[in-house]
Amino acid sequence: MAIQVTGLKKSFGKVEAVRGLNFSVPAGSICGFLGRNGAGKTTTLKMLQGMIHPDAGHATILGLNIADPAQSVQIRQRAAFVTEEKGTLGYLKVSQVIKITKAFYPNWSNEIEAKLLDTFEIPTDRRVSKLSKGGQTKLSLLLALARGAEMLILDEPTEGLDPAATEQLLQSLVVMSAESQTTVFFSSHQLAEVEQIADRVVIIDKGVTVVEDSLDDLKHNYRRVRLVFDATAPAIPGARIDGRTASLLVRHDHAIDELRALKPASLDIDSVSLKEIFLDSVKGDRS
Amino acid sequence: MLFRPNPGSGVPIYIQLMEQVRHAVETGALREGEQLPGIRKVAEDLVINPNTVAKAYRELEHEGVVELRQGAGAFIAANGAGKAQLDRMRKAAALIENAIEKLTVMGLTEEEIRRLFESRLTHSRNQ
Amino acid sequence: MILLYKSWLEMRVRLAFGLGAISALCLVTIWDYQKLTHNVARDKMMLMLLPFTQQAIDSVTANYSSFIWAHWNAFNQLLLLPMLAMTIASAGILPNGACLRERGDQNSAAAAFMLSLPVRRHTLLLYRGAIGLLALAIFAFVPQLMIVALSPLVSAAYSFQDALAYGAISFAAMLIPYALGLVVSSLIDDDMTSRLSSIFFLIALLILERTINPSQPFAYYRFLSGEAYFTTHEILWIGMAACTLLAAAITWAAIQIVERRDY
Predict the structure, then answer these.
(1) What topology is assigned to B7-78 in CATH?
(2) What is residue C84's three-state secondary structure?
(3) Which helix or strand (DSSP H or E) is residue A253 part of?
(4) Which end of chain B has fewer CB atoms < 10 Å from its terminal CB, N or C?
(5) What is the ipTM of this complex?
């Protein structure tokens, strides 16, 4: 496992941000990390990087323990992190920041550096603080992608990027995955992007994991079922009832058989998008 | 040659890729012995996960449509077209089953369903 | 090492400002000699405002080195150096104030970046600390050497040996506010707050020292001004050692804070 998280907990004062989180990310996969705002994604990513110390629980990245300071340094040698701030050193020029970062990574790829400077159109002579927010994001991404890391852990990497830059980033990620089997773990609110390049997803809500699966399996197993009854629809756990219509997401085929047993006037089965799976997984209390 | 799958559709991307390849084989766009583009190239061009491409190729090999040669890549198998056809029939059967299911739930009898099918077939033939 | 280079880039603006301020003040002091040469009484009155022993004040005479001690070491330097030391220190891992228009979010962005590098936190702090020592040395010795070089312009002479001695004493003394600055910056991320709190602290310490009985053996500002050397012409080695050890201990505390906290 490239990432293994067990029982991770973190509270800030009275607020429990992460409440016993468990998930794992296999090596070589591209895994989307989804959740509503405040679900605990950024806190989790910062704990993985070593910026925040967990209150309880255990996590390893590439087999190294995040809570051990010396191993955490090794993690940061082999895995590249881009945080939510996506900042570098504002008062320096782009070329200086690249120079400083490069010095730490013997596996730095000059080709990727040159390619991304070109596709992202980052002016090397300009002060970082003078770049647009999107420009700073692109620079952070360049620094992460060019360092020859075994693993990329990115917090909303496409935030603030225009569609062309987004596509360029996604393309760079799949190419790195294809060429070097780089594992990618990234959080995003853009479900379309996740659906496009991820082969696994982890969805968290209120500090715990609610879904952890391969994207293909999710699409195979989840179905949206719409039932119409002759009279008022019966109460079905997890369904949205609207007069005679009931609509819900089901996980297994035998659940559909159970629904058939309710003798609806009509029953429609549709496949679902990641968005529907997401919305269904994070809605309040579920039975 | 392969075009972008739709990530938002309920159909997993690897299945969409498989259908594209089968369709290409049936229509002759891809012939026996021809090589499919490499996994890296497909991933890069379509901006999709390379594992997904690999899975599609593996499943196609499992079906017999494609042959994976060690170190060389993926090639359309001998009688790949025939195998592609097989899958098409399988899919058609599933569609028919689904329709019959729905019609049954609606309350049609077997006789009514058969007559409905024939009348629609005649209708489309005359189009 | 690349981290020294980076810390240097962060520090050079403050160093330049500090050096400019110190040099200007120093020049003014030397120049004042022409006007204030024989105003010993006034010098003594001024010194009484500050925490010096009666013995020291009595030693003030009309000669040049006395003048320099009274005006530079005991007065201007007293106010400026500890503040500069704390200002240079206030960054810790975050490069606060390296760019004068630094915004708050730039600071957290910079911290996030530094903490994504494969370096231990205490290493980041120590490298920053090391380059700051260079600034401290410059602040301590440059004015003294300026006085040696420029005194002939006002028809006076300043002993090179004295310059070195006072320089060394100032440097050792500055280590303490410097280390305190490291601690403050490891706790407070906001640049303005950490600088203001440092200044308040220094002023409070000055007032405290003044109100306490001035014949105490060891007092900070008196040590900084080189009062012991002025009165006895001997370096107070125990004071130097005490400063160094205390600064090291305070730095150790800063390291502990930096290692344990969340960013």
Answers:
(1) Arc Repressor Mutant, subunit A (1.10.10)
(2) helix
(3) helix A253-260
(4) C
(5) 0.84
